[in-house]
Amino acid sequence: MTTNATTTAPDAGITTRTALDLTGHPDVPARVGPFSHAVRWGDLLFVTGQMPTLPDTGEVVAGGVAEQTEQVLRNLTAVLAPCGAGLDDALMVRVYLEDFDDFDAVNTVYRRWFAEPRPARTCVGVRGLAVGARVEIDLIVGLVDGGER
């Protein structure tokens, strides 16, 4: 399901904002709140932070922060697929960590998923995350050729 809203940006003409609800797409977890999986604005895609939840059950994946990071990145990949994008299209990554002692473990997994040249990134320490997660990641993605591959 998509919802469109037309917005006029100064000196940029008319751009359509498209909110994407990808519930029911293969491997995309259900939303855990009142938001879109992603919002498209021109050739940019703003992807909601993904949790380490299993798409079929909604439960947090078993294991530690490395396993949770792997699941978050699988979930992000699943959200990007119907949009014609992948992690290599990421321009900006925001990582939220419940415990900064997990920084090195998250980076070990992160390096395997993001190729050089890697996107810009911010890592934020937080007091808590939804569903008891230890890590959450959101993205800003550039859609190559309008998301067509």
Automatic annotation (TrEMBL):
<comment type="similarity">
    <text>Belongs to the RutC family.</text>
</comment>
<dbReference type="InterPro" id="IPR006175">
    <property type="entry name" value="YjgF/YER057c/UK114"/>
</dbReference>
<dbReference type="GO" id="GO:0019239">
    <property type="term" value="F:deaminase activity"/>
</dbReference>
<protein>
    <submittedName>
        <fullName>RidA family protein</fullName>
    </submittedName>
</protein>
<dbReference type="GO" id="GO:0005829">
    <property type="term" value="C:cytosol"/>
</dbReference>
<dbReference type="InterPro" id="IPR035959">
    <property type="entry name" value="RutC-like_sf"/>
</dbReference>
<dbReference type="Pfam" id="PF01042">
    <property type="entry name" value="Ribonuc_L-PSP"/>
</dbReference>
<dbReference type="InterPro" id="IPR006056">
    <property type="entry name" value="RidA"/>
</dbReference>
